[in-house]
Specification:
Blueprint: H1 2-11, E1 14-17, E2 23-26, E3 34-37, H2 40-60
Antiparallel strand pairs: 1-2, 2-3
Length: 87
């Protein structure tokens, strides 16, 4: 389920070639999920890693996730009251 969400989010990614020849990538619906790379491929890989980290933080904090391509990952995610804090 998480893999499918990541795949859908990555399909929405926007990339830009910068003046210095490097690449920047972002996912507009996932504000803050951005990455840079020397090559397009490196930028894609960095963006996927950034998205995974972004998701972990959002889920851990109980934040709502954007619905991407009608895929709603919010169903079944515990609310902050239901989460269990581990030491």
């Amino acid at each position: 389920m998480l893999t499918e969400y990541i795949d859908k989010a990555m399909s929405e990614a926007l990339y830009e070639k910068l003046e210095d020849g490097t690449y920047a990538g972002k996912i507009a619906q996932c504000e803050g999920a951005i990455a840079f790379g020397q090559t397009f491929y490196e930028c894609q890989n960095e963006l996927k890693a950034a998205l995974e980290g972004w998701l972990i933080v959002k889920i851990r904090h109980g934040d709502l996730l954007p619905v991407i391509d009608n895929f709603d990952l919010n169903k079944g995610i515990p609310t902050p009251k239901e989460t269990v804090r581990h030491a």
